[in-house]
Amino acid sequence: MKSVAFISEKGGVGKSTTVLNVAAAMAGKGLKVLVLDTDPQANATYVLLRGEKPRRPTIHEVLVGQAAAIHAIVPTALPGVDILPAATDLADANVTLAGEMGRERRLRVAMAGAEAAYDYVLVDTAPTRSLLTTNVLNFVEEVLVPIVPGLFGVLGLGQLQADVAAVRRFLDNKALRLGGVFLTMTERHNVAQDVEEQLRRLFGDLVFRTKIPRSVKLEEAHSRHESVLSYAPKSVGASAYLALTEEILDDGREAKRNGDPGGNPSAHDAA
Ligand SMILES: Nc1ncnc2c1ncn2[C@@H]1O[C@H](COP(=O)(O)OP(=O)(O)OP(=O)(O)O)[C@@H](O)[C@H]1O
Ligand SMILES: [Mg+2]
């Protein structure tokens, strides 16, 4: 089992879109995928359960210790993809857990055993730094960051890198790493090129080769509760997400990073 979380404090940068389409691409290759929805907005849940309200228990009951993860995981509209769904009351978990024992370890403890049935666990996250995100960081193997080109595209990455380092130092997940950054919603203009150059300067080999272009097909697919791979298989969005998935699955990409598990050390105070 491998696990990856898509994290950015910026809202609307394509985290949920990436989780959905990478899940579909992985399942298309015959991999068994589990999506963890840790965002109270529950966007991934909404698309994958075709707009149906998730029945209880959800990830909230799992985190507060009222249900086992295997009792909350359900199949989705995508063959080969299961989900541990979220509902809007997940926001309350930040408050409920704050005074509880093992508050930063709840997801890690809950997933022990449940994850074994899957080749890949993909975690969607909220655009807020919270106890929920800390739980995610203390569980996954790697963090991938979508970045929309623009003036403030890379701001906030410094905080995320500090959080990754703090989890390795103070919590259980000693092998957690920033696995990469990739550009989303790119358009053909100079800002995108500037941001890409800046990213490569800061993050070197951590920058994915694949860029996800802005494509209306991606949005249309969501509103039909589909992945772009089934909705518009010949679109630029579909081929970009297939390529991104290949890169995520490529074990070789790790070796290209000079053997440094935390990524380029010179980038650590970069943003
Ligand atoms: N490459 C793209 N081209 C066009 N639209 C896109 C693309 N990627 C995502 N979108 C659309 O942009 C909006 C935001 O994307 P998404 O919900 O995936 O971002 P997010 O980072 O998960 O947001 P949040 O932080 O609120 O959870 C959605 O309406 C989505 O359909
Ligand atoms: Mg989202």
UniProtKB/TrEMBL annotation:
CDD domains: ParAB_family. Coiled coil: none annotated. The keyword Protein biosynthesis does not apply. Residues 1-171 form the AAA domain. Keywords: Plasmid. Residues 252-271 are annotated as: Disordered. Pfam families: AAA_31. InterPro entries: AAA_dom (IPR025669), DNA_Partitioning_ATPase (IPR050678), P-loop_NTPase (IPR027417). This is Soj-like protein. The lineage of its organism: Bacteria, Pseudomonadati, Planctomycetota, Planctomycetia, Isosphaerales.
